[in-house]
Amino acid sequence: METSFNQIIIKAADNLQKNTPFVMATVLESIGGTPCRSGFKMIVYPDENFEGTVGGGLIEHKIRAACLDIFTSKENKLLQFELTEAETGIGMKCGGEAKIFLEYFAPSRTIYLFGAGHLCKSILPILKSLQFHLEVIDNRADYASRDRLPQADTVICQDYLQYAKEFLPAPQDAVIIFTHAHSNDYDILLNICQRNLDITYLGMIASRQKAADNLQQLKNIGISPQQLQKIHTPIGLNIAKTTTQEIAISITAELLAIYNKVTNIKSLSELPQK
User: Mean pLDDT, to the nearest integer, of 210-226?
Assistant: First the structure.
C-alpha cells in the first residue's frame, strides 16, 4: 500500500523529532508521459529503506541511488530526467521529463554537558541559538532541574561516571565537561578516552596547570597521543575571559572553530606556560 502524501509529511516530522537522518525526494515538475506527478514524495534512509514514492519504475530506482549518495556528500541536489531511450534519456519509453529535488535532513548535533552549574546556565542560551541539541547531566537533584535549565532539551540526574560509561554519542556530537569537582571532570574525561568515543569535540575546564597534570596522567596510563591531541583543556579560546558569560563565549567559539574545521586558531592549551 502506497504511503500517502500526508503520511510522508508526518513521517518526516517524526524523523526530525527522533533525530533520524533521511533524504526527502520531491517531484517538482512532471512534463508529458511520466509516472511522476508534481508533489510526489519519497523518504530514503541510510540503510536503503524507503517510504513513499516518486512514481516507481527505473526513475525511482535512480532517485533512490542518488539519495544514498547524498548521505556522503551531505548536499542537496536538483535532478532532471528525460524518460526516453535516446542517448540523453534514462532508458524509459514514457517520453516525458521530470525534475526532482533531493533534500538532506542531517541528524542534530548533540552537545553533552557534564555539570549544571553557573557556567552551564550561561552557555545553554548561546548553544541553543546555534541549533544544537543540548543534554545536561548532573549528579545533584537540585541542579539537574528543567526549571533551572529551560534551554536544555534533556536534563538527567545521574552519577557522572555511570552516565559516561553508558552514553552513546554520534560522530557529529560534542562533550563539554565542567562539573563542580575536578575529580569528577578527570574521571569523565578518562572514561571517554578509555572508550575511545568518536566525537567531534571534547573539552574540559581546568587551570593550565591542572590541565597539564591531567593530560600527563592520561599519557602515563597509555592513552594514545592521537586521543590526547583531540582533548581541549584548558577549554576555550584565549579572549582574556573573566566572567561566566565570557567563558561561555570562549568555549562556544572554540567549539564552532572545530566544527567548521578552522585550523589556525589559538586555544589556551596552545599558549606557552608562563
Answer: 95
